[in-house]
Amino acid sequence: MATDFKSIPIIDIAPLLAKWDDPKMAQDPGVCEVVKQLDQACREAGFFYVKGHGIPETLVKEVRNITHKFFDLPYEEKLKIKMTAAAGYRGYQRVGENITKGVPDMHEAIDCYKELKQGMYGALGKPMEGCNQWPHNPPNFKELVESYISLCTDLSRKIMRGIALALGGLPDEFEGERGGDAFWVMRLIGYPGVSAANGKCTPENDIGCGAHTDYGLLTLVNQDEDITALQVRNLSGEWISAPPIPGTFVCNIGDMLKILSNGLYESTLHQVINSSLTYRVCIAFFYEPNYDAAVEPLEVCVQRSGGTPKFEKAVYGEHLVSKVQTNFVM
Q1: Which residues pair with 48 in a beta bridge?
Q2: Cα angle at 238 between 233 and 241, to 5 degrees?
């Protein structure tokens, strides 16, 4: 369960990444220290920063920059990749089309998902079948973002090996039938500054993204520097800021990991309010279980939390589709 945390911890994961595929990684002192910090962060906040993650800072910034360039384009240009249900909910959505708990969010976005081939998961996969819609302008957008996705997928898998150890399991607990063919989601999001809403001083709703938890296992957040907008709710209901820290990702755990951990780890509520005058970009990468994974509490977590499963089995793809189909106005 989340606590009354007042700040979000920073974890140097370099020792974990150095030994991630070592059969004896669980005995390595450096790995053990990272695992201890991951466990504390996941229990107390459900959020943490990672540094020493190995993804080049030049690429991290380049992805933000090219996203800014896309959102700077005329509306008509952006509509060339408009999101539709027929496109598997992939593509561009304008400000206000994303809905959180019935309220339009003040952001625009490009939504991408791991591509599902027709018939791959039968009826379960049908709503999400399709190819990602990539803009032709700016040039090189698809190639740059796909290389970034590949690195984020690899990094997330390695962090999840550390979290598996933190829960008392084996390093590969979240591979195989649970996450060996991990699904992923990526949202490239633009939050207008407070003066940008149709020339008004203040938009009707200043919530860039309403309070929510994430759906899957682990989220990596790459946010513009110098603008603090992400807020995380602690146990007392206070909103704690997660300011950008150069060289880090903000990480948080999602609903599927909450189930797998039998509630030992919480998927914490968070929201985005861009109260600056400056347009803000955020790239959120969501690492998920296998699309068809039946997710239920790990036995080791049940034993560590009173001996009784607290959650029923959930099929990840069903959970995703139920959220996606209620999150958009098209």
Answers
A1: 251
A2: 65
Torsional class of 255: left (φ above 0), alpha (ψ -120 to 50), beta (otherwise): alpha
Rounded to whole angstroms, how far apart are CA atoms 229 and 166? 30
Contact 223, 107 (CB under 8 A): no
Task: Give Cα 35 to chain centroid, integer Å.
Answer: 20
Give the C-alpha separation, 111 to 320, whole Å.
Answer: 13
CB 71 within 8 A of CB 78: yes
Distance CA 242, CA 274 (A): 12
List the chain residues with pLDDT less than 50: 196-204
Half-sphere exposure of 3 (CA within 13 A, CB side): 11
Those residues whose C-beta lies under 8 Å from the C-beta of residue 279, and which sit 6 or more positions away, are: 68, 71, 190, 191, 192, 193, 196
Fold entry, domain 10-327:
Jelly Rolls (2.60.120)
Residues 244/284, Cβ–Cβ less than 8 Å? no
| Cα distance between residue 33 and residue 38, in whole Å | 9
| Four-CA torsion 245, 269, 101, 290, nearest 10 degrees | 90
Look up residue 269 and give its amino acid: L
Whole-number Å distance between alpha carbons of 17 and 208: 34
Q: What kind and span of H or E run contains 71?
A: helix 57-71
Helix boundaries (H) for 72-211: 75-78, 141-166, 176-179
Strand, coil or helix: what is 121? coil
Look at the block and give the residue holding tokens 């959930």: 314
In the structure encoding, which two tokens stand for residue 27, read together? 């005995």
| pLDDT value, residue 205 | 55
